[in-house]
Specification:
The complex is a heterodimer of chains A (166) and B (388). Chain A is α+β, with helices and mostly antiparallel strands and 166 residues long. Chain A has 5 helices and 6 strands, in the order H-H-H-E-H-E-E-H-E-E-E. In chain B, helix 3 packs across helix 10 and helix 5 packs across helix 9. The chains are: A alpha+beta (166), B alpha/beta (388). Chains A and B meet through helix 2 of A and helix 2, helix 11 and helix 13 of B. Chain A: GO terms for molecular function: sequence-specific DNA binding.
Chain lengths: 166, 388
Amino acid sequence: MKLTATEIEIAEILEKDARLTNEDLAKMTNLSIDQINQIVRKLEETKVIVRYVSLVDWTKIDGHQGVTAMIDVKVTPKRDVGFNDVAERIYRHSEVKSVYLMSGTYDLSVQVEGQSVNDVAHFVSQKLSTIEGVISTTTHFVLKKFKHDGTVYDNDDHDKRIVVSP
Amino acid sequence: MELKTSYLAKHVRTLQPSGIRKFFDATAGLTDVISLGVGEPDFVTPWNVREAAILSLEDGYTSYTANAGLLELRVEISNYIDNNYCVNYDPESEITVTVGASEAIDIALRAILDPGDEVLVVEPCFVSYAPLVTLAGGVPVIVESMKDNDFKVLPEQLEAAVTDRTKAIMICSPNNPTGSMLSKAEMERIADIAKKHDLLVLSDEIYAELVYDELYTSFAAIEGMQERTILVSGFSKDLAMTGWRLGFVCAPKEITEGMLKIHQYAIMCASTMAQHAGLEGLKNGRRDVAEMRKSYRQRRNYIVQSLNEMGLKCYKPEGAFYTFPNIESTGMDSETFATRLLKAERVVVVPGNAFGASGEGHVRCSYATSMAQLQEAMTRMRRFVEKL
């Protein structure tokens, strides 16, 4: 799909801050609201913009339970469908947050979220490793998120500039 | 023996402190302030640039450099100007690394002015120009750019101000505080005046990288102008390095030799770690600059439209990160407007008269602040204007 430079710019702006209104976007790009409505609709309908989300730092919430694991999965690719079939069998599980096909020593990188280490262990041993074509799994638990999707979680972002300067 | 009433030199005693300082004091102690009064980027210096300074310290580069600056840096400056503006400067004899563009302007003026020499200063402009001319023994001759002409000076105005004592024209384009930029054709007409009357052009090109709609032309790139141009620029604005105090000045050999004498006695050399950082910025900082430029452009569009919508007439500046809306419709002068806005809504803007009398009727709003802050500032300003 070919997009214009403006359409790409809108996608870039929304990727950084999805809460900007179409009116804001119109002002930022010098387009009319109608034009912006059209572009945003096009980006949404073509699934260039797949979804709008928030980054939530759950660790700030007392009593929050939850663990994230990154799992390296080796897979025997199937004739005709390659890795797609196995990837699909994996991502259908709701606890799977992302699945990437990787270059390197393993094939699929799978991110899983669960309530506890036990939860994840159960998923890996009972569900993931039993899928046909999965040869091996290596599970890494995330201990702390420093930066995610280009955003530093505990950023000291207060303005250090003096209030007025020439 | 009795003490003198003042030990200060007369010309220093009569020198006016910057009007901006006064406004800075007014904000002291206030909380929840959104500042559009800052003349520097909201970005922090890119990490690779900061890291280069840290590594230079780890490697023990803590001594002086050559007076003119690290040769490697001057070579990189030369390449950068050549690649971007098609002007060729010899790193060995025509480039000096300075403590910010401010020092560059100072040593340039001190190098070229005899007592009583006149310099045409186009106002509104950066607060230091006229005082630095005075301190260098010269006489600033103010030429007011036209607000009906988006604050671009007309060549006829400059020519009318030329006398036998005129030595140079000072130009800053894109301009602080107005953001307006001269077109190549306009520069050529100013260049013709410089050639006709044998004048130098002191061209402050610190915002050259922050231009949003068209290509930038350096004054030195205008035909026949390199030999009479002193090109001042630096790292502060495009690479978000204001606190590092790193600039440079390119000029013909004779002028460079003169400036270098002043620089070596007054400064010795620019900070060594800053020079190492600047080197990294020139080599590998262009992608960051492009990202920042894109962001400034979006914010410029946003603020210009927002200000116009609330009835503060504002042309669309071609460069830098300032808008200079007209506030005359409110019936207030610029200082009253800024003071009342600060009190009522806690938004800081700088009164236009801080940049010269011709800035009256306007305020400078910097859009070097995050979109979220800008949105909130516009909401507050709209409320302020509507209540009047």
